[in-house]
Amino acid sequence: MTSVLVAPPTKTWQWRGFSIRYQQVGEAGVPVLCIHGFGASSDHWRKNLPVYGQQHRAFAIDLVGFGLSDKPAPSASLAYTFETWSQQIIDFCREVIGQPAHLVANSIGCVVAMQAAVDSPAWVRSIVMLNCSLRLLHERRRAAIPWHQRMSTPLIQQLLGYPALGRFLFLAALPVPR
Question: What is the domain extent for residue 129?
Fold first, then answer.
């Protein structure tokens, strides 16, 4: 038997004068807010939302500039930064969800979730990170980090690109069975 996937209805929320699309499934339970990665949208979570919605109020949001949310030109009042998206997430928790939420994020959405937790920890219950992309955050601040970290980072990134080393580190991190 195969299940039919029904897309959650699209809703909109006005944030700083911009139309922001989000989806919601479930009416009860602790809220979960899903944050997409670069080049994606809330549709990225189309298979997860119905499952989360069985036990949670589950939301997925299109960050400003992505998906079906408005895509304004960058300006002095709106820059496309992790801080901007962090504030969007915090405001969404306050205005739409109405309480702190667990943040589930992918790729650069992980950086957005971490920034939201730093900016307003009272509104973030926890963070689940999938395929966290810290490179953009690191690259943006490269000039401000100590020279020895600036020099070693490309080497470490290159080493982690070798499958055998990745497997070794993954296996080393697994718990030992008893």
Answer: 10-140
